[in-house]
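REVIEWER CHECKLIST
Item 1: Sequence provided? yes
Item 2: Single chain? yes
Item 3: Sequence as submitted:
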Amino acid sequence: MAQVIMDKFTKNVFKEKSIIDPNKKVRAAVVGIGWIAEAQVDSYLRCEDVDLVALCEIVPGKAEAFMEALGIQDRGIKVYNSTKEMYEHEKLDVVSICTANASHCQLVVEALDAGANVLCEKPMCVTLDEAVTMCRAAKRNNKILSVGFQPRMTKYMQDIVNIVRSGELGEVYYIQSGGGRRHGIPTPFGTSLIESSKSGFGAMGDIGCYSLDMLLNAVGYPKPLTVSAYKSDFFGKDPNYYKGHPEYAEAFDVDDFAAAFIRLEGGIILDFRIAWAMHMDTTGDALILGKKGGLRIPSTPAWNGSFDGPLTIYHDVAGEQVQTVLPFEDEDIGELYYKKVRAFVSAVNYGTEVPSPAEQILYQMAILDGMTRSAELGKEVDIVIPEI
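Item 4: Structure as written out by the authors:
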């Protein structure tokens, strides 16, 4: 079996706008001062065409302490403890929503109705109905709603898109997610990600949304039609899993493992699996199978943009079975949040392409919503997406 190295499909996904007008500034605010807010704030401060004018956090003193920790307390950034008050006093062009998943819908709609374009951290929300409400609010206000999938900013992810859309694989008929963690329930942040009242999902929404976006974006985000799903919580509810924190087991009421079989428009099958915890190091590599070739994407614990191995195309060349290996380049994952924010600001300020538009991520939310319904009912369910 022959093996060759090829770079004809590779190009960098993110190219910062060559001319940024510092005199054409957008006014920005960040809502929710959790750990992700630091990356958002730092990114906005790095953009020459952005004035970060406000932070909003319901916990008194938290935003002030946050600014002092970052050394930005003298930047003239105002602090608000309610979004209502902030929108009454500030005319904002862009708002980042960095709060718990279950609050995304309400806060996104409020920001859009206040006249701002919105960058919402992933996952988009909790239910399909919420996603529809958010998309309708963006359309009603003629504003941009982007969802924060920073892995799209990597060259690696763009290589995947380029390979599929070049026709090298032919017509795609099957896509498979993989990866997952052997021991990785995210409790360093307390219980915010393991309580359904805050997060809505467990593994399937937290890291599963990354693998869904990678695969669905590669094949053009076809509409999902049906889903048959399974989810479990064996590890999350086991007090022995947590060292010194049995209270986490009592709070845990989301999934730590999920799997699904999804039928998509165009005859494509999506075989999905993800885990925060399992007695295995991976559920396998991600695969994209076409009638002319197949693409193997090496397994990762999170699908968040961190990769450590090359992509491989399996195809036939001149009657020979050939493996084509694309050169692997390690990337600075720390820069992805800036690239995500930069791309969003450019879309608002200069009309460039919107990164991860909500109209696409709506289909992902339809899948996650369908998985929840199917797993609870124990049978396949139809996915019906209302018109926006």
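Item 5: Key structural point noted by reviewer: The CA atoms of residues 124 and 361 lie 7 Å apart.
Item 6: Recommendation: ____
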